[in-house]
């Protein structure tokens, strides 16, 4: 009896799944990482962020160069023993300042990047929804392990996003 119930349930579940799969007429896939790399808006955001954070990045590089110079001086053995201890202490302080500044820069950069890309994602989602409605898509997937290229509409989405920017 239990075996019949399980078989009936499995058959019902299979038929429902098949019916749902058959009801999907048009399927699309979006590679969001490509949209975030190749769209004009994404490239503009990246340039803007690079420009905004370049001065802090240069300052960080200068701190690193100064620390390396001090380390080389200490390791060369040319510093008198009386000054050596003070130089080592200074190098450790500089190293900590560098690490703190690097963490702060990374956090600030990631926060700004996330803010900027959130607006791009909203815009891309609007484009995708408009495209789905206009072109009659039943289902559009953004992330998947494998997708046949015939379902990939990423280029069309990038083209639509780029057209909006102009």
How do the helices and strands line up, and which of them pair or pack?
Blueprint: H1 2-23, E1 27-29, H2 32-38, H3 40-76, H4 81-135, E2 139-141, H5 154-165
Parallel strand pairs: 1-2
Helix pairs in contact: 2-3, 2-5, 3-4, 4-5
Provide key terms for this protein.
two-stranded parallel sheet; 2 strands; 166 residues; Protein Binding, DinI Protein, Chain A; mainly alpha; single chain
Biggest sheet strand order reads 1-2
What is the total domain count? 1
* Unreliable stretches: none
End-to-end C-alpha gap: 67 Å
CATH homologous superfamily assignment: Skp domain
Radius of gyration: 28 Å
In CATH, the architecture is 2-Layer Sandwich
Q: List the helices and strands in order.
A: HEHHHEH
CATH class: Alpha Beta
Note the total helix count.
Answer: 5
Major sheet details: 2 strands, parallel
Structural class of the helices, strands and pairings? mainly alpha
The coarse silhouette is elongated
Helix content: over 70%
Into which percentage range does the β-strand content fall? under 5%
Short description:
It is built from five helices and two strands.
């Amino acid at each position: 009896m239990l075996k019949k119930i399980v078989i009936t349930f499995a058959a019902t579940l299979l038929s429902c799944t098949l019916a749902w799969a058959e009801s999907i007429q048009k399927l699309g896939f979006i590679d969001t990482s490509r949209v975030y790399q190749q769209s004009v808006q994404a490239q503009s955001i990246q340039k803007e962020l690079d420009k905004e954070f370049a001065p802090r990045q240069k300052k960080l590089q200068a701190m690193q160069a100064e620390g390396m110079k001090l380390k080389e001086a200490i390791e060369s053995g040319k510093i008198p023993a009386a000054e050596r201890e003070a130089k080592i202490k200074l190098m450790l302080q500089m190293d900590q300042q560098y690490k703190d500044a690097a963490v702060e820069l990374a956090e600030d950069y990631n926060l700004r990047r996330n803010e900027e890309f959130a607006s791009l994602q909203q815009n891309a989602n609007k484009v995708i929804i408009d495209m789905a409605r206009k072109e009659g898509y039943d289902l559009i997937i953004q992330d998947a392990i494998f997708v046949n290229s015939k379902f990939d509409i990423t280029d069309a989405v990038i083209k639509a996003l780029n057209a909006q920017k102009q």
